[in-house]
Amino acid sequence: MTKAYAQGFSSQHSEISISELPIHGQFPTWLRGTLIRNGPGQFEVGKTPIPHWFDGLAQLHRFSFGDGKVSYGNRFIRSNAYAKDNQTGKINYRGFAVDPCRTMFQKAFALFIEQEPANNTVVNITRLEDDFIAMTEFPLAVRFDPHTLETLGVLDYDEKVNAQLATAHPHYDFARRVGINHMTRIGRKMNYDLYALTSKKRTKLASVTVKSPSYMHSFSTTPRYIILADYSFKLKSLIQLAFGDKPFIQNFVWDDTEDSHFLVIDIERGKLVAEVPTDPFFCFHHINAYEADDNTLIVDLSAYDDAHLIDQLYVDALLQQDYPQVGEFRRYTVPLNGGRASYEVLSDESIELPRINYKPHNGRDYQFAYGASVQKGTSDFLNQIVKVDVKNRQTSVWYEEGCYPSEPVFVPAPNAQAEDDGVLLVVVLDSRAGNSFMLALDAQSMQELGRAIVPQHIPFGFHGSFFDI
Ligand SMILES: [Fe+2]
Predict the structure, then answer these.
(1) What percent of the chain has pLDDT over 90?
(2) From the CA of 217, how far away is ligand 1's center (Å)?
(3) What is the whole-number distance in angstroms between the Cα of residue 407 and the centre of ligand 1?
(4) Which of 199, 278, 323, 407 places its Cα 20 to 30 Å from the Cα of 349?
(5) Which fold has domain 6-467?
(6) How far is the CA of 356 from the centre of ligand 1 (A)?
(7) Ligand 1 centroid, distance to 354 Cα (angstroms)
(8) Considering only CA atoms, which of 53, 133, 126 is closest in space to residue 96?
(9) Residues 104-116: what's their mean pLDDT?
């Protein structure tokens, strides 16, 4: 049976620009700026399906707000993969879960030397000074014009980094005025490397040598620390990765005989100061973390008992199987002076694609997290938005039959006093109408303020940010 949400995994080839979308309800007149989102826009090349959600060809979406009006535009990133794949009708570059047939020489060459890497930067976007960049899980980034979404080329850093992987979830350190990202060096020596980022420069803050790296999609920061969750999902064999036939992610193996660990890195000292074991778990997204006292960190995550979710995010599986229960809202207490980390669950509802009121609360004590979620008792795709009050352990929900929301992005109201004084901006697929809309929720009440109707569907994407432009 066709899933109601199948349209979310179908390509959107139409690039449009609309100056004023029809609106039901009202968008706040104080809301001024632009939300830019990233995600796949094309799920096949010629007749060949792109197998995994994370490998679709990147498309940017722009919603601009002002005077209660909303404009919209979308545009593919003109990556080398977009150009060459569409020109040749086949997949040409190694991705997250796809590996086109290559000669042994090409495989060795691609791993150890920076041959032209794929720059299908499909996962997230951010701003570094005046540069707006799209990111994926490699160290490169692609610049784009935030107004037209035109691709401007690969970001030209002043120096190369010796790393093969990077997260698409850099943090921003407002005190030090730099981005912070985690990269992984895979080679004879394996390292987790932490970098400070500006638009031109990447400066190494710390380096942690590991026997075998795990696949890490995001991490946490506090004013003093960078916190990595080193899952029991490790690179099995460098030789296999280099010369084997398996796509990138299939070289990582779940091993629940191994503990997971929280690696705590002191930013100023550039040193690993604690390696705290805990029972095996996996997650894509950290929610937030803070220093409860000198010897205790709190780390909130959207967590899973194992890494099987990665297999369930192949497009075929998403369209044919029941979607699994998504992440559990776990609060880990991480002792820095010995002992194991333990967790409690903060909400009855699941949470994925989590967001917080970032600027005042990232790395600090906080009260509210927002995310997409699957309604309890259903095996549907992400079909509701949750707001979790972590102080009072209460969860409120926005749900509408037939609707499939994406990541909710919190935008604070001007001069907001309360942490949740603002709106949530959410792209929603309306499976009944066959198109998408931009939903504005009052973040305090979780009630709808308004929706702006897009005249076509927006494929399910990953992440975005709001800018005052
Ligand atoms: Fe992500």
Answers:
(1) 81
(2) 6
(3) 10
(4) 278
(5) Methylamine Dehydrogenase; Chain H (2.130.10)
(6) 14
(7) 9
(8) 53
(9) 51
pTM of the model: 0.95
Q: Which tens digit of pLDDT belongs to each residue from 378-422?
A: 889 999 999 999 999 999 999 999 999 999 999 999 999 999 999
Give me the pLDDT at residue 133, please.
Answer: 96
> How far does the centroid of ligand 1 lie from the alpha carbon of residue 293, in Å?
29
213-250 per-position pLDDT tens digit: 999 999 999 999 999 999 999 998 887 777 777 788 88
101-109: long-range contacts (C-beta < 8 A, 24 or more apart)?
104/243, 107/242, 107/243, 108/242, 108/243
- Going from the Cα of 250 to the center of ligand 1, the distance in angstroms, rounded, reads 18
Distance 2 CA to ligand 1 centre (A): 27
**Domain segments of the chain: what residues?**
6-467
* Span from the CA of 307 to the centroid of ligand 1 (angstroms): 15
Gap from CA of 461 to ligand 1 centroid (Å):
10
Q: 29 alpha carbon to ligand 1 midpoint, in Å?
A: 30
Predicted pLDDT of residue 23: 98
The C-alpha atoms of residue 56 and residue 315 are separated, in whole angstroms, by 10
Give the distance (Å) from ligand 1 centre to CA of residue 326: 14
Q: Could you tell me if 71 and 64 are in contact, meaning their C-beta atoms sit under 8 angstroms apart?
A: yes
Exposure on the CB side of residue 432, measured as CA atoms within 13 A: 4
**Residues 270-306: b if buried by 16+ CB within 10 A, e if exposed:** eebebebebebbbbbbbbbbbbeeeeebbbbbbbbee
Ligand 1 center to residue 424 CA distance, Å?
18
User: pLDDT tens across 21-60, in order?
Assistant: 999 999 999 999 999 999 999 999 999 999 999 999 999 9
Residue 326: closest CA among 276, 278, 384: 384
**Interval between CA 219 and ligand 1 midpoint (Å):** 10
- Ligand 1 centroid from CA 252, angstroms: 18
In the predicted model, what is the mean pLDDT of residues 349-361?
Answer: 97
Name the residue type at position 271. Answer: K
Compute the distance from residue 169 Cα to the ligand 1 centre, in Å: 7
